[in-house]
């Protein structure tokens, strides 16, 4: 198994995708800022929190990814939030990374009323808006936790109206690779100091990213009705991407992608389509559009490896 994974990862990194007449574009987004912590106190300890933040941003610096990060302000402990969170957010902005709102506590709209959820959205904007204003910017972008946009038509309509009233633009997702599943298993190995398992998980993550792109690229062209659209990639801020995002970045370059800002990607005509999906699931906007417009042609991306899924589900 280990040798096969090593050979697969080498193949992914050494063989470029066939050339196309179209220049591919991708906007990278990282959810769950400041980051998904390995240790319970990591986001309460200023030294630990800033150390992870600097390590993540140092990793991104040479890659020129034009990324956008989505913040859960409530991740930082209340007793240190007022002093620590501005420093963390300023560091992201100073690194050239845009910021958006991801609610205060990563609240699932499917579990509460639209009013309660919008209150959580407001609570999650305080320090992020201040950080952006310090640099002459505005808080515009919003990303739904779990990609859940409302399990009833009434709740979804109320949430969308509330976000629009507050001046938000919803950041959709086209490329989803379930990195959170790999990251949860990775954090367990990291906490145990199991570097060999960490390496195996990282290699499987990269192979799976390549497999999902094999699915998403032609599927997105079908949904768009022509060429592949500008893609929006959902990732998360965690130690797996701290250690393996450079290889993910290289994979996109090898497949002919140019990294663009979220604003540039959203200029693609595809994103003028409304989100038609109402229901309990979180999914790529490609699925939402395809299920509404041509349900018989809807199909799903590959599943993560079974050993990752089983470990994710384990208590």
Description:
The chain is an alpha/beta fold. The longest helix is centred in the middle third of the chain and has 30 residues, at 195-224. Helix 7 (179-192) packs antiparallel against helix 8 (195-224). The chain has helices at residues 2-14, 46-60, 78-94, 114-123, 126-134, 153-165, 179-192, 195-224, 239-254, 262-266, 285-293, 306-313; strands at residues 24-33, 68-71, 98-101, 141-142, 169-170, 175-176, 231-236, 257-259.
Using brief descriptors, characterize the structure shown.
315 residues, alpha/beta, 6-stranded parallel sheet, two-stranded parallel sheet, 8 strands
Short account of what is shown:
The protein is an alpha/beta fold.
How are the SSEs placed, and which strands pair?
Blueprint: H1 2-14, E1 24-33, H2 46-60, E2 68-71, H3 78-94, E3 98-101, H4 114-123, H5 126-134, E4 141-142, H6 153-165, E5 169-170, E6 175-176, H7 179-192, H8 195-224, E7 231-236, H9 239-254, E8 257-259, H10 262-266, H11 285-293, H12 306-313
Parallel strand pairs: 1-2, 1-7, 1-8, 2-3, 4-5, 6-7
Helix pairs in contact: 1-8, 2-3, 2-9, 3-5, 4-6, 7-8, 7-12, 8-9
Radius of gyration, rounded?
A: 19 Å
Q: What global shape is seen?
A: globular
Q: pLDDT below 50 for ≥5 consecutive residues: which ranges?
A: 1-21
Order of helices and strands: HEHEHEHHEHEEHHEHEHHH
| Integer average pLDDT | 93
Q: Between the first and last Cα atoms, what is the distance in angstroms?
A: 25 Å
Count every helix, treating DSSP H or I runs of 4 or more residues as helices.
12
Report the sheet-strand fraction: 5-15%
Find the count of extended strands (DSSP E, 2+ residues): 8
